[in-house]
Design goal:
The structure is a homodimer of 245-residue chains. The first copy, chain A, has 245 residues and is an alpha/beta fold. Chain A is built from eleven helices and seven strands. Chain A folds into two domains: 175 residues, Alpha/beta knot (3-Layer(aba) Sandwich), CATH 3.40.1280; 60 residues, Helicase, Ruva Protein, domain 3 (Orthogonal Bundle), CATH 1.10.8.590. Chain A is 50% helix and 13% strand.
Chain lengths: 245, 245
């Protein structure tokens, strides 16, 4: 199941961190690494720090955009050492790992996003997230190394996988709750449709559209529509579209 | 309580690992670092990798023997990525952290031992241990980086300390996320507005409206809009309403 979890490093500056992250993942049984616009990759320093996990580097998917990297994933989680004031559900790494197992066990795919070394994920990047994973750093020193954050998440994923293998009687019930997860690309095209209808209805005439679009994304991400529910929303948009002048 | 936990690095070869370990500890609120016969210390590379955790390096106790480093500690735990065939109680990192909290809460002091990068702790070193902490690496790739092992243990110590203090750092924030809860009547009038707009757009012409209305309610209930978010939705509905014939 761990192979369905996609660790996505966004805009990583130091290639050594990419190697160390691959090593951290492999020790815990994870294999799917994606890199969005890495500063330097492939790179000898990454391979050196991978220390035997070079297969993960060879198979790593390098993407030009974050959307491309997570297109097929149904549960998108961001990581953050600081607590952000965004209306996205917060969870700790342990809760997140349990949630990931549910998703994976019911046929979904998970993406866990790790931001740039210096600043972490931007608010714009976090718009795609169904949840934010808060790492429990102390208040006055939250400077967690990127590979260390990857290590903690990978460790919790493995613990959750080992737990799940010990047959949880609730597992099948929980799984039924996520029957038809929606991959990121479907949500992205729903947002496109939504925004084009709203533009035609004059919604963006008064409010700056970036702010409003971000708010709406965060709201609908929280809704987490299933496949048939997304069809309903699309149907409604089409209806409205036809009636608009 | 975390200051009573002594992380002991035995015979560390690479000074960079000492720095990275100090950083990993400090992010999680640990401060007591001991070094038994480090190959190179102090060292610029250690300071660089500590990345702001140099205070832990300055205060680190350098010892000539392991016995000296753990002299005052009452609970000695060793770490190991492989399962050793030694008659020492095995535990995972989570169980170990709970055990450490017990010890510390009852006035004891804890030492956690980390062996050389290449081979880990020797059997001779492990003889001092009351328990062995097994890190859950996969069978064919147990090559956990030293600082990564320190990070996992430090993380579990912090989680156990937070549990013990019953102070979840996210609790107050989670509450803040629900600052503007929406009373049922507000949601009810939103639904009325939504359904009247959808009716005018012809959405209920094809689908029986009770089914569709129920589905939409379940979806928007999951979204759990805040007060200002509900205002946004109402504003959008008004916009569309004006444009409909």
């Amino acid at each position: 199941m761990l192979e369905k979890i996609n660790f996505v490093l966004v805009g990583t500056t130091h290639p050594g961190n990419i190697g160390a992250a691959a090593r951290a993942m492999k020790t815990m049984g994870l294999s799917q690494l994606s890199l969005v616009q890495p500063t330097a990759f492939p790179c000898a320093e990454a391979t050196a720090r991978a220390s035997g996990a070079d297969d993960l580097l060879t198979q790593a998917r390098v993407a030009q955009t974050l959307d491309e990297a997570i297109a097929k994933d149904t549960l998108i989680l961001g990581t953050s050492a600081r607590v952000r004031n965004l209306p996205v559900p917060l969870m700790n790494a342990r809760e997140a790992a349990a949630r990931m197992m549910q998703t994976v066990n019911s046929g979904g795919r998970v993406a866990v996003l790790f931001g740039k070394e210096r600043y972490g994920l931007t608010n714009e990047e976090m718009e795609r997230c169904h949840g934010l994973i808060n790492l429990p750093t102390v208040e006055n020193f939250s400077s967690l190394n990127l590979a260390a954050a990857v290590q903690v998440l990978a460790y919790e994923c493995r613990m959750a996988a080992l737990d799940a293998a010990n047959e949880n009687p609730l597992a099948s019930f929980k799984a039924a709750q996520e029957l038809e997860p929606v991959p990121h690309e479907k949500m992205a095209s729903f947002y496109q449709h939504l925004f084009s209808v709203l533009a035609r209805a004059g919604v963006f005439d008064r409010i700056p559209d970036t702010t409003l679009k971000r708010r709406l994304k965060l709201m609908f991400n929280r809704m987490r529509p299933q496949k048939h529910e997304l069809d309903i929303l699309r149907g409604i948009l089409s209806n409205i579209e036809k009636k608009l002048p």
